[in-house]
Amino acid sequence: MFSKILFCTDFSETADNAFRYAVRSASHNGAKLLILHVSPEADAQFWKGYVYEDGRDVEDKALETLRARIAEQYLAKLPEGVEAEVVLRSGPAAEQILDVAESAGADLAVLGRQGAGGVRDLFFGNVASKVAKAIKCPVLIVP
Fold it and tell me: Sign of the C-alpha dihedral, residues 74, 75, 81, 84?
């Protein structure tokens, strides 16, 4: 039924709950799991000029840290046979989720109801609400 499942994470507890559903769906359907994390863009880009002692810039270090966290928190918990791809984006979360869902051809999107930003809408988080209203594939919003 599903061949590509988009799982969106902000590393919150609700994202962890959503991950379990995404993995079960991917395993049950033999689907590829796309693990997406969207980082907010900094209002100012001054930080890009800073360099770590080992010569890497802030952006490279941040991407490395995110990939390591995803590997530990999600990839390490995948059952055998579930293929996964990590997608990292920056910008407005809902906009990036919708873009990845469409460009990747996701058959299902799975995300938590409210994330690190707290409750912004009564029933859904702000991002989940925006995604649910505009996404072109089925979406599972997990509390």
Answer: positive
Residues 6+ positions from 50 with CB-CB distance below 8 Å: 57, 58
Residue length of the chain: 143
Domains of the chain in start order, with CATH, are: 4-142 (3.40.50.620)
pTM summary value:
0.85
Other CB atoms within 10 A of residue 13 CB? 11
CA distances from 26 to 1, 78, 109, 115 (A): 10, 10, 11, 22
Q: Strand ranges (DSSP E) for the chain?
A: 4-9, 32-39, 84-90, 108-112, 139-142
Kind and range of the H or E run holding 68: helix 58-73
Chain centre to alpha carbon of residue 74? 11
Q: Residues 12-50: pLDDT tens digits?
A: 999 999 999 999 999 999 999 999 999 987 655 555 555
Burial zone of 79 (CB within 10 Å; 0-12 exposed, 13-18 middle, 19+ buried): exposed
